[in-house]
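Per reviewer request, we include the raw input and output of the structure prediction for the construct analysed in the revised manuscript.
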Amino acid sequence: MINVMDILISLGVVAGAALILGILLALISHFFAVEEDQKVKAVRACLPGVNCGACGYKGCDDYAVAVAEGAAKPNLCVPGAEATAKELGDVLGIEVEPPKDVVAYVHCNGNCEATSKKASYGGISSCKAASMLYGGPDACRFGCMGLGDCAAVCPADAICMKDGIAHVDTSKCLGCGLCADTCPKHVISMLPQETAVAVMCHNQDKGADARKACKNACIACKKCEKACPHGAITVMNNLAQIDYDKCTGCGACAEGCPTGCLKKVFFPDLPEKS
């Protein structure tokens, strides 16, 4: 027969033990709690939380600690741009110069009509994996392979694959640079927002060989170099390169390019960061 008194005593013991443990946990939490650094908290609140790593740290939390401790410059947050720089300046009590707006640009126009495949690739859909197999399946060993490694790491969903190559929606691009770091062919770079002309080629073979691999390739003819009135373009390693400190965006180089690998470009303003 069930003894009601024994049951009540058991319940009382359990409840008492739970009460004592609760009190002990509360006391431990109070006396051994790690005090949160209010400066770090204030700095972290200014950051956008993208955790892109463009600042050189693993994420916004690590960067916030470094800024609060004075170990990192407060103007390294590219996605946050001017708004974040201003907020950090207010928190730190100093004037913070905002980082320059940059956007990702794919230096390749080797679309399906311009180039071809030298082999059939049936492995996993990864540029890094494909490039490890004899440099990749494309006729141009320098070009975009269009398998989407850059799109996979983009935190803003700003990259898509179209006509065999990567395309960047610069209105969405945060400027974090993850795509440029990921690309095994290094065909993506971060260009200043005010860029007016860009090279859509990364082929460094001699002109004839480059042309065989892709109809849109730079052939190192140096017509762009001669056409530029400001000396902003030089052909190095069989490829046109632009010095943006000298470039005025006149477009003379693009007009004189016989293969069209030099393009006039316009990057719309980056969306306002919240």
